[in-house]
Amino acid sequence: MSAVTRRCHVCIPARDLWARLVDVEGLVVEDHELDLVELDGSGALEPGARMVLSRRQGQRLTTYDVHVLDVVEQELLRLSVETGRDAWLVEARLRRNAEGTAMSVTADLDPSRTPQAVLHGLTRPLDLGLYTAIDDLLDRWVHRACQALAAAT
């Protein structure tokens, strides 16, 4: 259990779904548990950009240090997301089809974060709290991008 995947399909153009997907400030405004702590760069999601988000879930405060690794406008967004001692590689892919746009967002635990990561990853149990946190964050992100647009069509 080291990967999380969310998928959705909406009957709208990829450009509209993309705009919603990369609107970090809109996500923070709509999700009252999420705060934008820091934003480096121009505010655009371009390679090298960085942001720090925090989210309170009851007594637990999770901080997400997000680095943009790669962007192909309206097709691909790759992020590195660090949550405490774990790091996740997140990839969002949009695919156009006759009915609209399909989106898949996958987060994989990054084994290269620590020395001897492969052995370390095999012997250390996954922090289920952080797994749940990244799972919930992806769920909210995809839901916000897809559901609001689907309702508007």
From TrEMBL:
InterPro entries: START-like_dom_sf. It comes from the Bacteria. Gene3D superfamilies: 3.30.530.20. This is Polyketide cyclase / dehydrase and lipid transport. It comes from Egicoccus halophilus.
